[in-house]
């Protein structure tokens, strides 16, 4: 990355880099198939509930039927996908994103905060202490 570019140029350079493209590809390779799989699983549940009432009303154990089991499995699959994504992101995505972020932070021009002087003096009202923060416009030289 160039060091004398504007922040906008730096972000555009990162966006056009091979590392960033690889990161996006890895993310898409996880998200799209998982989304399609979950959508198909959910659609199966909805379609079976609407058109296969006999199958969905089959009792498995006591009052627990296939529809209830499939409904609960929707929650289980949601949590499993979230857990799997968390592991995948930590192993595959986060190291690349951290590297890109570190490179960007290393070349980003940070705004230098103005120095702040704190002056603590004893107040005259009932023994309280007054704290006043002042800014030195010339900077600490």
Automatic annotation (TrEMBL):
The keyword 4Fe-4S does not apply. Keywords: Membrane, Transmembrane, Transmembrane helix. Signal peptide: none annotated. Residues 108-141 are annotated as: Disordered. The chain crosses the membrane at residues 30-52, 64-85. Residues 118-141 have a biased composition (Low complexity). Pfam families: DUF485 (PF04341). This is Uncharacterized membrane protein (DUF485 family). It comes from Pseudosporangium ferrugineum.
């Amino acid at each position: 990355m160039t060091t004398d570019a504007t922040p906008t140029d730096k972000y555009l350079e990162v966006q056009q880099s091979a590392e960033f493209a690889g990161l996006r590809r890895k993310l898409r390779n996880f998200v799209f198939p998982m989304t399609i799989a979950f959508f198909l699983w959910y659609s199966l549940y909805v379609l079976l509930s609407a058109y296969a009432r006999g199958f969905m009303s089959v009792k498995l154990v006591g009052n627990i039927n296939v529809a209830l089991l499939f409904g609960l499995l929707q929650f289980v699959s949601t949590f499993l996908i979230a857990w799997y994504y968390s592991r995948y992101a930590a192993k595959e995505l986060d190291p690349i994103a951290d590297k890109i972020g570190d490179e960007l932070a290393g070349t980003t021009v940070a705004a230098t905060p103005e120095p702040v002087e704190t002056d603590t003096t004893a107040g005259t009202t009932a023994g309280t202490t007054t704290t006043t923060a002042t800014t030195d416009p010339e900077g600490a030289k």
